[in-house]
Design goal:
globular, 330 residues, 12 strands, Nuclear Transport Factor 2, Chain: A, Muramoyl-pentapeptide Carboxypeptidase, domain 2, alpha+beta, 2 domains
Length: 330
Amino acid sequence: MLRAGAAALVLGAAGCTSGGKQPVVAASSDAGPTTAPPATPSATPSATPPAAPTPLPNPPLWQPGPSEVQPDVKRRAVELVAALGAWPPGGQGAAAARARVAALGLPPGLADQAGPLAPAAPEASLEVIDAQYGGILADSASVLVVCRQWTRQPDGSVAAGGATVDVRLSRAAPRWTVTELHPGEPGPPAAAPSPAVAQVLAQSRIELPPEALADLRSGTVHDSVLHAMLQLAGTYTLSVSVVRTGHPLDVFGTTRPSDHPLGRAFDVWRIDGRAVVDPSTPRQLVESFMRDAAAAGSYNVGGPVAIPGPGNQFFTDDTHHDHVHVGFTS
């Protein structure tokens, strides 16, 4: 419910050689000393200057649309994550990160919670794919900021990665303030993930951000989730925001465990290229997707559309105004 491949750069270098004169040659004493004619110096190749580093991507900062429940809540969360996850050459390090956070009018100590969002790299850039609610109440909120990130490596190459950051906020004047950060850490790939993982990864109609991709590769996502994704991809192109990592452990504002950290749920922020939160997205498309998610085995489908159904199979609230939640019992 808000928690980026790498381009290799080869530095060219050419060595230099120096031309020189031949040595003086001594003749026999009766002929008198002579010297050989000077040799033509060998050509000295000019050194090839190092190739300019590949520039990092520079995407625009994500902005909330006009139909958001609390636009400034998301804007505030995105500003902080961008300040922590992107910096110009030489802008790395804790002190610089604290200064960027302070410039936003937020507590500088938040920089100490950046974790994997602030690797040791001399330069970084960041793209926010989506910012969705992990929960929104009257005076508190969780925003899941889903990111791609590019970092400069010691050899000059560019590495791609990403994170999903659970940003916690509370109401304040004149703007909401951030109280804590929870960057996701999905863990290493499994030695033998479920065969369904490979099927999902091969399906071009399922779009996965970096951390959701890592969740699948870690082997911690139930097959019920994977099979539902594949079934829905037969009809729709689904842009997934969150699977397991980066989501609050409990349903926001409660002590009830969420299905996400257990690997039994996924969220979709865009259907057939249309953002769920966009008022121009046909409600019929969203409702059809929600009904088909239930038909794929979900016991708990949430979204921006109120759908009649048995028990609590369908639900809607402000938190799910911007995405469709698809949960499973196992």
